[in-house]
What we know:
By secondary structure, the chain is of the alpha+beta class. Among the domains are: 104 residues, Endonuclease III, domain 1; 99 residues, Alpha-Beta Complex (Nucleoside Triphosphate Pyrophosphohydrolase), CATH 3.90.79.10. It is built from 13 helices and six strands. Strands 1, 2, 3, 4, 5 and 6 form a six-stranded mixed β-sheet that branches. The chain binds iron/sulfur cluster. Iron/sulfur cluster (SF4) binds next to helix 10.
Amino acid sequence: xxxLAVLKPxxxxxxxxxxxxxxxxxxxxxxxxxKDYPWRRTHDxxxxxxxxxxxxxxxxxxxxxxxxxxxxxEIFPDLETLASSSEDExxxxxxxxxxxxxxxxxxxTARAVVEQHAGVFPIEEKELLALPGIGRYTVGxxxxxxxxxxxPLVDGNVMRVFARLFNDSTPVxxxxxxxxxxxxxxxxxxxxxxxLYNSAFMELxxxxxxxxxxxCLSCPVAAFCQSSDPQSLxxxxxxxxITQLEELSIFxxxxxxxxxxxxxxxxxxxxxxLPERTSEEILSADLLYEATYAxxxxxxxxxxxxxxxxxxxxxxxxxEETELESFPMSAPYRKALRHLLA
Length: 342
Ligand code: SF4
């Protein structure tokens, strides 16, 4: 097996003693090379919040490359529009991004800002933290990116860069690791240029100090980096155990209508799907479609069988084929349905 070793310059500067040298190296690089994202062209806290929520569990290439961010901002250009929209409309626009809880939280945040703050985002940390769905990271993002106020932020990206810069093998997902990294973020923060510094730090982690093989030879802050084996960092204690699941559904059609069911449980509340059946109920039914998909720590085997059912059960509904696209649905079911109708 080919093993790629990282070529890394030896540190010549001390990060703790020369924080301003670190700020200036990072700032010079970012001013010249920082990427031009739509949320970096604005100070509107709403537009920044939308980008942060979308990017929480979805890659940048999907959020921007597939036009999700632009489309969302076109349909819901401001807080008031989002706050007054229905959950159905919102979920339909969010469709394909997954993790629908994020969309519902964004909706709740918009409504809370409109109802409790007359539609104006508060700037105080305490007030921001009291909003639904806003945690410490998002407070840092909103205050620094929208209001240019010195506020630290730490996410997985930042933790990885800190572990390498300080050559620290404390597990980043331990309480000690989390505490240390928030303290570092606070101490190292560039008080004069918080928006620029936090943006640059995040981009450092996406561009050079990436997951896996970092690009240390091109890194603008390599002179401050203590790690001798950056690939081995960060260390984590928790290992994600993947659980296999099976989802059995039916495709029932009656003239120009298809049977749909409302999703059960909180994760996909408000979405629709093909109706679920037990293995006994579809024992002798032909298999029409199968696919696998991953969601959080689950790997799901999805199987859809043909059905001649004529009666909708509780929570199920016959829907005209021409109206199917207006029913919000998770991406795996949308794909299955389009395939079955084609
Ligand atoms: S910060 Fe990351 S990319 Fe830069 S030198 Fe250190 S390990 Fe390499």
